[in-house]
Amino acid sequence: MGRRRALGTALVAVALATLGLVTHAGGMPRSAPVVREPVVATGAIGRVPLDGPWTVRVVPSGAGRTVRVPYSPNAATVRGPAGKTSFEGAVAWYRTTLHVPADGDYAIRFESVNHRAAVSVDGRELARHTGAYLPFEARAHLRRGDHALVVRADWRSPAAMKVTAWHRTWFNFGGIGREVTIRRLGASEVDAPSVVTRLLPGGAALVDVTARVTNRSRHARVIRLDGRLGARALRFVPARLGPGGAGWLRTQVRIARPRLWAPGRPALQTLGLTVPGESGWRARVGLRELRWAGGRLLINGRPLVLRGASLQEDAPGHGDALTADDMDAAVGRLRAIGANATRSQHPLNPALLERLDAAGILVWQGIGPVDAPGAWTARTPALRRQGLRRVRLNVVQARTHASVLTWNLANEIANNGHEGGQASFVDSAAQLVHRLDPGRPVALDVWGTHMPDAAGFMYRNVDAIGATNYEGWYGHLRARPATIDAGIRAWLRRVRAAFPGRVLAVTEFGAEANRLNPADAPGGLRFQARLLARHIRVYRATPWLSGMLAWNLQDFALSPDFEGGSVRRLAPEIALVRGMNQKGLFTYGGRAKPAAAVVRGLYAEAR
């Protein structure tokens, strides 16, 4: 993903050149073709990046510019008078030229387009898609030569997105937000791999490898899948598949002395799967075992305590269309605070997950609907199916990444769920995730001031609980330090009483901070550092707690209407930047606040 892999024999080259501006605009075509369920091909052999140049034109401005993708057209206008209009969205047309070296079937893959996408080649629409942070593909038979590829991205009305269970976190960045690739399709496909590691007595490991194989030919036949995990050969039983049929192939390998992946020791090795002469899949994977029981989280048999900060994909001028440098910088900031883990409320870019794999940093990974899942999602059977589909695609896309620690199904869920089916939706999603990936726990992030007295039906298949605690900020803002410490300890006792036997972590705590306020006053830089220190000292002295993830690693943009929330009622004099979350340990531009050094020192003492 983040790095260009060697090209497979299925596709020799794709040469790109920019055509003129798209001259048509307006609404979507009245009809659209059926989109095949996307093949999760993060490591498909033969993929070629379509990063540019592209021509992009935002309607109705009419002006076009040459860019490289990923590219968000409204990422430069997140604040000030232009921020409100920018947040409400627009329509953009992207255009580039494909040079196809040979006649054949091709798949053009998009890792994320916000919000509604229509893809056409040579004026013929191939696919439609809805929703950011979800992969999809447009497929076509193409003849050798040049072809015009056009993408229409429509990210208007975040309020309408929310009503249809597509809440944006946090600013409504539009356009092509992640990698675009093309590959030639052979007579078969290999995709959706899974790697689950179990440690055996004596130190050996038993590794289960699963992958889906599809027969794209017109005839029933036996398909043989070959594989290697590092230096070890993988032997799969051949499968007979009908025309267009797909099957799951599984094998198991015992490794006497495995090189295990862990925070601080991110051992990676290559997993390669091939149908000889036809198709394949390849990526770097890590072998590690996660276990959870009795409220404890273990990695490779050793207790695991998370230390880090949450991560929002947002870089100045780029929004969530992160460049390689943006992703490297985010990982560098996590390292700078001594983090062994991070958290994201939405599915992270696979290219960023690759970097976290290599850095040995775990991810408390948000998947599926983001805003009150079930409250919106369960209103109709169609929305319920949409929500579960998102959960499934997010898991299958990222489950080979060693950095993914847990699949988190909700952000700040309240009590035992909203009326109207939220508990039922969460329970169905948890069961689905356990079937898709038995090697990781399922989590929920709970709104810390709206916890149940006792966990109900919604939590029965949930393994881990993350909770928000803003003691000393939204609660008891001006209290004495001893009062804040006592409040944190009392809150921790309530968490443990509500969720006995679960893995428990504090996944959100902190305070806004900038230079507009006196350093020691609410909103000031020293105030933030001191409050974070109070929380961390209490958490690290709590032996049953499995981790602490500060909110947030870096300041980020959100709705231009946001002015700080309820803290303004407690401190009306506070100076906060409208449309910006400033709870970061680093500024939006990447400069470390004093809290970054304080957090680093306290995390280092906790090792």
Structure overview:
It contains ten helices and 37 strands. 51% of the residues are buried. It has 607 residues and is of the alpha+beta class. The N terminus is likely disordered. The radius of gyration is 24 Å and the shape is globular. Strand 28, helix 3 and strand 29 form a beta-alpha-beta unit. The chain is 20% helix and 31% strand. It folds into three domains: 170 residues, Galactose-binding domain-like (Jelly Rolls); 101 residues, Sandwich (Immunoglobulin-like); 304 residues, TIM Barrel (Alpha-Beta Barrel). An eight-stranded parallel beta sheet has the order 34-33-32-31-30-29-28-35. Strands 1, 3, 4, 5, 8, 9 and 11 form a seven-stranded antiparallel beta sheet that branches.
What labels would you give this structure?
31% strand; eight-stranded parallel sheet; single chain; seven-stranded antiparallel sheet; Immunoglobulin-like; Jelly Rolls; globular; TIM Barrel
Query: How many H/I helical runs?
Result: 10
- Looking at this structure, what is the CATH superfamily of the largest domain? Glycosidases
CATH class of the largest domain: Alpha Beta
The CATH architecture designation of the largest domain is Alpha-Beta Barrel
Q: Going across the major beta sheet, what is the strand order?
A: 34-33-32-31-30-29-28-35
The general outline is globular
- Low-pLDDT ranges: 1-41
Number of strands: 37
What's the mean pLDDT score?
90
Roughly how much helix do the residues carry, as a percent range? 10-25%
CA-to-CA gap between the ends?
32 Å
Percent range for β-strand residues = 25-35%
Using only CA atoms, what is the Rg? 24 Å
Overall number of structural domains:
3
CATH topology of the largest domain: TIM Barrel
Main pleated-sheet profile: 8 strands, parallel
Structural class by SSE content:
alpha+beta
